[in-house]
Amino acid sequence: MGSIGSRTGTSGWLYRASKAALNSLLKDVALALAGRATCIAFHPGWVRTDMGGAGADLSVERSVADLRRTIAALTPAYTGRFLNHDGSPIDW
User: Fold this and answer.
1) Which pLDDT score, from 0 to 100, does residue 28 have?
2) What is the pTM of this model?
3) Which residues share a beta bridge with 89?
4) Coil, strand or helix at 50
5) Which helix (H) or strand (E) element contains residue 84?
6) DSSP H or E run through 18
7) Which residues, 6+ apart, have CB-to-CB distance to 3 below 8 Å?
């Protein structure tokens, strides 16, 4: 919902705007802390939670396992990026 480049629909305007604002803040922090911290925005996937609903693609366990694996593989070269739970890049 925070990706402008991946957008294909018009639902959730305010929610999308809040996620895009958060991603903008992350990018600013990544630039401000360059060389001192690795700052990444993550999309956990469409997860079967109260918010995601029963029809969501991923179990909580799968999303968390993917995120942990992705975080473990990060290097400072990834700072300022927006990544999917599996580590694949997402268009801002």
Assistant:
1) 96
2) 0.85
3) 83
4) coil
5) strand 81-84
6) helix 13-32
7) 23, 43, 82, 90, 91, 92
